[in-house]
Amino acid sequence: MTTVAGNRALDRLRRARRGAELLEQVGRDPLRPPGLQEAPMDERAQDAEEIEDDRLRLMFTCCHPALPLESRVALTLRTLAGLTTAEIARAFLVSEATMSKRLTRAKAKIAGAGIPYRVPPRHLLPERTGGVLAVLYLLFNEGYAASSGDDMIRSSLCDEAIRLARALCELTGFEPEAAGLLALMLLQHSRRATRLDAEGDLITLEEQNRERWDRALINEATDILEAAMARWSIGPYQVQAAIAALHAAAPNPALTDWTEIAELYALLEQLMPSPVVRLNRAVAVAMAGDPDGGLEIVDELTIVGELDGYHLLEATRADLLRRRGDLRAAANAYRRALALAPTEPERRFLTRRLAEARSG
User: Fold this and answer.
1) For 196, phi and psi rounded to 5 degrees?
2) 91 is a domain residue
3) Can you list the residues of the chain whose pLDDT is less than 50?
């Protein structure tokens, strides 16, 4: 027992020292704004002991509440997660130039306000948790559906986001939204082996071999989600996980409860208003038996213009038109989506769909 206790004490000291070293490295990073204040080393080591994971510790350090949520999330993704400005811009559905300006303004505010660069003490962690959750969510999304390049899936990013989400759940005592995000990631990742074929081409959810979905991950996610929702503090990550769980529970596409999914998307739109959420609701409404209603939502989004340049808007329109039997209009929409698609697997998929629509 004495030996074990001694080893644990040594591990604790090593973690504190390693945390301090990483904070020093990020502090020397050229992306760090000039004039950024640092806490004394003993304070940082003491605060760092509250969070055992090195990268998670740094994320809490960067997600300072003095910055707007989008700015702190974008800055953390750029500085710590290694995403490019272009990738972050696509995640926020803005131009690269706009995102570059946001990052510059965030750095300037940090420098001008003298925001201290240090790990917050435990009692201040909750005010930064929302930012960390958003960082992990977007980090996983970039791995789940890459925003550019030849590869549709970047599994290493998914694995790292899940690892950090597990660490965050342990840190927060499985706070409902942290647990909801972890459940969402596990449910989405459970389909990783079926989303691409042997040639790397995209396989839609409808066409995936559900027997190859990872049932261990699905069962774990379902247990985590049920425990989180039993605490009656429902948030957007839990609602998204509930939607993913309904897909996972359907033994075949025909038995998917699209009516319930459409209702959950309506709730999600209230909790987290977003044109992308509304686009997903359009799909659910159409699949629940109201294709015209789904297309009306797509048309409204087009008029508003918030999703201009977003290939999935036209891809969704094309798919709903195809299902309705309007192949000529579907082909035109597939052509527009193809011109905007950011990854090679998506371009190949849309090319196939366009050929099918043309051939009838």
Assistant:
1) -130, 150
2) yes
3) 1-4, 12-13, 15-16, 18-48
Q: Do the Cβ atoms of 354 and 334 come closer than 8 Å?
A: yes
Distances (CA, A) of 90 to 87, 202, 236, 324: 5, 20, 21, 30
The predicted pLDDT at position 148 comes to 60
* Contact predicate 171/164, CB 8 Å: no
Number of compact structural domains in the chain: 1
User: Are the C-beta atoms of 148 and 83 separated by less than 8 Å?
Assistant: no
Q: What angle do CA 116, 122, 124 make, to 5 degrees?
A: 55
Tell me the β-bridge partners of 343: 149
- Residue 304 CA to residue 312 CA, distance in Å, equals 16
Amino acid (1-letter code) at residue 135: V
Confidence (pLDDT) at 162: 95
**Does 5 reside within a domain?**
yes
User: Alpha-carbon distance 57 to 41, whole Å?
Assistant: 15
| Of 277, 347, 289, residue with least CA distance to 313 | 277
Q: Which amino acid is at 47?
A: D
**Distance from C-alpha of 135 to C-alpha of 282, rounded to nearest angstrom:** 26
Residue 163 resides in a domain? no
Q: What tokens were used for 139?
A: 């980090």
pLDDT for position 171: 86
Radius of gyration of the chain (CA): 22
Q: Is the pTM of this model over 0.85?
A: no
With respect to residue 255, please indicate whether it lies within any of the assigned structural domains: no
Domain membership of residue 72 as a residue range? 1-129
Q: Do 148 and 342 touch, CB atoms closer than 8 A?
A: yes
- Return the DSSP state at 116: E
DSSP H or E stretch at residue 38: strand 37-38
Question: In the 8-state DSSP scheme, what is residue 208?
Answer: S
pLDDT at 10: 52
- Which helix (DSSP H) or strand (DSSP E) does residue 109 occupy? helix 96-113
